[in-house]
Amino acid sequence: MYETTGIGVEAAGLGKSYDDFWALRDVDLHVPAGSVLGLLGHNGAGKTTAIKILTTLASPTTGTARVAGYDVKTQGREVRSRIGVASQAATVDGLLTGRANLTLVGRLYGLSKTDARTRADELLERLDLVDAADKLVQAYSGGMRRRLDLAASIVARPAVLFLDEPTTGLDPRSRGDLWALLRELVDGGTTIVLTTQYLEEADRLADDIVVLDHGRVVAHGTPTDLKARVGGERAEVTVSGVADLAPAARALDGFADAPAVTDAEALTVTVPLRGGTRLMDIVRALDAGGVDAVDVARREATLDDVFLSLTTTSKPEAIAA
Amino acid sequence: MSQSLSADASIFARRNAAHIRQIPEKLIDVTLQPIMFVLLFAYVFGGVIDVPGSNYREYLIGGILVQSLAFGMMGPGTAIATDLREGVIERFRSLPVSRAAYLIGHLVSEVGASLIALTILTGSGLLVGWRPHEDVLHVAGGFGLLILFSITMIWIGTLLGLISRSADGVQGLIFMTIFPLTFLSNAFVPAEGLPAALETFSNYNPVSTVVSAVRTLFGNATATPDGAPWTLQHPVVSAVGSCLLLLAIVVPLTLARYRARTTD
To answer: What tens digit of pLDDT does each residue of A262-280 get?
Structure first.
C-alpha cells in the first residue's frame, strides 16, 4: 500500500473520537524520511492525540497510519522499536541516576549491556550531562531532565522521532543547543514530528507545517507557503492605551483586504497591507482618526499571523498552556 | 530487536532493585523495623504479656512475621503510584516491550524483598530464642504459607498503587489499615486478655487466622481461646483458603486496572 522506504510517516483519514467528541478528524499526513513536520495548533486542537496514535499509545477510530513502514494498529511492536518519543512531561525515573536511566531504556530497546552502556556514555556527553551522570535524576533541574528525556528518546537511534513541545521550559541557550542536535539527527536521516508552541521554532526547524484546529487540518505547507498564503506585508500599530485600539483598527481598515487583528495585551493592531500602501498614508490616517500611536511599523508576515488567521479559538499564547 | 517477556521483566525487576541500592531507606520498613519490633516486644512488652502454655518469644515470632509481610504491600503500592505520577510509565509504554513485563518485574522484585525480610526476621527470631517444634515438612509448610500470604499482600499493594493518586496517599492508607488489623489480632497478644468486643474482633480477624496457622505449622503455642470461631480452630486450611480467595478477587481487579491505566 505504501512504500516502506523513503517515507517516515504516512497517515490517511486518521480520526479519534471519544464518545461523540472527535479529538481528531480526517487527518492526512505525509512526512518523507529525513524531514521535519511541525504540528501547530491550540491546546485541544488534536496535536497530542495525533502523536499518541502515531506512537501506538492510542488506537485510531478511523483511518490508517504507517510509521517507519509499519502499521500502527497491527504492528505496534515493530513501530515502537523504530521510534523515539519525548512527551511533554519529562518521563524519566527520578530514583535512578541519569546514566542508569539511559542504560535501562537501552536495555529495554534490546541493546546488549555493553552497547547500552556505551550508548549512554555517548549521549551523556552529547547532551552535556556528563557532570550529572551519576547523580539521581530527582536532583536534576527542569532543563537537565528535559535533556535526559530527549537522550532517552534517541537511545536506539530511532528512524522516526516524536517530540511533544521539546523546548518548553528550556532557557534560550539550551533551546539553541537542542535545535542544533535535532538538525544533526535530521542530517543523519532521522524523521522528526514535533509539536511546538513557539512558532519561531516551527519556522526554524520544520520543512512542512500542519496546522490543526478542532481536530482537523486547516492548513498544510512549507513555512514560506503558509506565510505567502496570508499575504506578505503587514502594518503593526502600537497604541498607548486600550481605548485607542478600536479607532486604530478603523483607521487601518482602508488599507487592508482582511479584518484587523487586535491584541489587547500587547496594545497592537495588525493588518495585512494592500500592495502599494505607503507608510506615510497610514500615519496620516491614524492622525486623522485621533489615534495616539506609539509605534507604526511595516513587516513581513510571520507564522503568528498565519496562526491567527487560520485558527479560531484563542490567542497564540494559549496554544499549549 | 524484540526480546522475550522474561528478559524484559528481569530488566524491570533489576531497576527496582537499583532503586533500593540508591535509596536504602526503602528497605527499612521490611528490615530494621521488624527487628525493632522483635526487640521491643521480646524485651519490653514480653515481660508483661502472659501466653498460656508458652514463653512469649516463641509466641511472638509468628505474629511479627505476618505483620512484616503485610507491610510488604507498601513497596509495590508506593513504587507504582510514583511511576504513574512521574509519568515514567509513559516512557515504558513507548518502548518495544510487552506491557506485562513492567508488572511482572514489580512482582518479582517485591517477592525478592519479602524473602529478604523473611530471612532477616527468622534469623533474629532464632537469636532471641524462638524455635520451631514441628518436623521439616510442617516448618516448610509454614514458610510456604508465609510466602503465599506475602504474594497476596504484594498483589493488594499493586492494586492500591494503581488506584491511588500519590505515593503518600498509598502509604497513609496502608498504615491506617495494617496497624489496626495486626494489633487487633492475636499477632502480639492472645485474644483472651482483651475486652470482649476486641476479643471477638481479634477472633474473626483474618490476620489472626494466618498468624495461628503459621504458629501451628511451626509448632508454637497458638493460645486459641475456647469458643473461638471455626476459622481459628482450623487455621491452616482457613488461612490458605483466605489467601487464595483474596488472590482470586484482587488479581483480576489489578490486571483490569493496569490495562485501564495504560490505555488511552
So the answer is: 888 889 998 888 877 888 8
Cell of A310: 487560520
CA distance B60 to B71: 17
Residue A64, strand partner residues: A12
Chain B hits for A92, CB-CB cut-off 8 Å, are 86, 88, 91
Contact B22 A80 (CB under 8 A): no
Number of residues in chain A: 321
Residue B220 has pLDDT above 90, yes or no: yes
d(CA A233, CA A214): 28
What is the count of residue pairs from A and B with beta carbons less than 8 Å apart?
78
Q: Which residues of chain A have pLDDT under 50?
A: 1-4, 313-321
- What are the residue boundaries of the structural domains of chain A, listed by start? 7-227, 232-300
Chain B partners within 8 Å of A104 (Cβ): 11, 15
The CATH T-level fold of domain A232-300 is Alpha-Beta Plaits (3.30.70)
CB contact (8 A) between residue B1 and residue A93? no
- Alpha-carbon distance B177 to B165, whole Å? 18
Chain segment B154-192, per-residue pLDDT in tens: 999 999 999 998 999 999 999 999 999 999 999 998 988
- What is the third-level CATH fold of A7-227? Rossmann fold (3.40.50)
